């Protein structure tokens, strides 16, 4: 029997995915000993397990490995859905002596998995680190649907997020662009959107991850200087380290929207339907 095995990281997403697939969530016990070590127990027989667990923060990594280990002793197939692929930013060696954490995580995860689904990893080539069936679920169209009819333009905070802004803009049916950075001095950088009139417009700034929020705050300030009427902020993975969300709202953002890959007060869009497409067969 196929069942969802929900880790601690994304219970709401696991429930939504179970509803989409019309299957049950397995009975699993997960607890912490006084010293912080994790204990897991699968309380029923499962033939086909779909684990839903992020690799962020660190304690969720160990929990994932233990869930996989317990399931490999009974299940015939294990599919691992990783809503947020932590350690994905170190995807190559930037300086001599560094570890490639994105690759190491892949090698460890695949030991007890038949397939892996990642939701918008920081870089798409991370998928090549896996030697098993690995697929990327893109939540951008679903996130964009939330803003259908609400905005006039989609802006990426930098050129690296332009493709995401393009997908969102095309889904909504509006123009898209990105912030170009211009260094004025050694400690001053100006961001601006060129070749697009934004005065009086309603604009969405979109990115894959919001961590400390510094880039978003700067982008909001720049858009306000360009006379934008309303500013919305959206991301797939909302980490909101520290008081990032408060600073973004204080800067002049009307609404923050994230998905349920990481559950916060801003998880207004579920990626369950997109993930289910890869698991419905």
Order of helices and strands: EHEEEHEHEEHEHEEEEHEHEEH
Number of helices: 8
Number of DSSP strand runs: 15
- Do you know the CATH architecture of the largest domain? 3-Layer(aba) Sandwich
| Mean model confidence by pLDDT | 95
Number of domains: 2
CA-based gyration radius: 20 Å
Helix content: 25-40%
Structural category is alpha/beta
Strand order of the largest sheet: 9-8-12-13-14-15
Written overview of the protein:
27% of the residues lie in helices and 29% in strands. With 281 residues, it is α/β, with parallel strands linked by helices. It folds into two domains: 2-138 and 271-276, 3-Layer(aba) Sandwich (Rossmann fold); 141-260, Rossmann fold. The strands form four sheets. Strands 9-8-12-13-14-15 form a six-stranded parallel β-sheet, with helices on both faces. A five-stranded parallel β-sheet has the order 1-4-5-6-7, with helices on both faces. Helix 6 links the parallel strand 12 (202-210) and strand 13. The longest helix has 15 residues, at 58-72. The two termini are 14 Å apart. The relative contact order is 0.13.
């Amino acid at each position: 029997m196929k069942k969802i095995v929900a880790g601690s990281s994304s219970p709401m997403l696991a429930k939504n995915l179970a509803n989409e697939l019309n299957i049950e969530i397995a009975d699993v016990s997960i607890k912490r000993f006084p010293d912080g070590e994790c204990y897991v127990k699968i309380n029923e027989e499962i033939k086909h397990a779909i684990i839903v667990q992020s690799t962020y923060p660190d304690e969720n990594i160990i929990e994932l490995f233990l869930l996989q280990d317990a399931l490999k002793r009974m299940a015939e197939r294990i599919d691992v859905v990783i809503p947020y692929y932590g350690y994905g930013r170190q995807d190559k060696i930037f300086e001599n002596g560094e570890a490639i954490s994105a690759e190491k995580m892949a090698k460890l995860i695949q030991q007890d998995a038949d397939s892996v689904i990642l939701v918008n990893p920081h870089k798409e080539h991370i998928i090549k680190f896996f030697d098993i069936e690995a697929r990327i679920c893109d939540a951008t169209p679903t996130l964009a649907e939330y803003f259908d009819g609400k905005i006039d333009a989609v802006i990426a905070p930098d050129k690296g997020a332009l493709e995401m802004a393009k997908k969102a803009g095309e889904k909504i049916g509006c123009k898209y662009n990105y912030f170009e950075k211009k260094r004025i001095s050694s400690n001053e950088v100006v961001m601006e959107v060129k070749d697009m009139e934004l005065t009086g417009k309603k604009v969405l700034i979109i990115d894959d991850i919001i961590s400390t929020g510094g880039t978003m705050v700067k982008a909001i300030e720049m858009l306000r200087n360009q006379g934008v009427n309303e500013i919305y902020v959206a991301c797939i993975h909302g980490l909101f380290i520290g008081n990032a969300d408060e600073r973004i709202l204080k800067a002049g953002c009307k609404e923050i929207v994230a998905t349920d890959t990481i559950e916060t007060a801003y998880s207004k869009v579920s990626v369950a339907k997109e993930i289910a497409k890869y698991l419905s067969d």
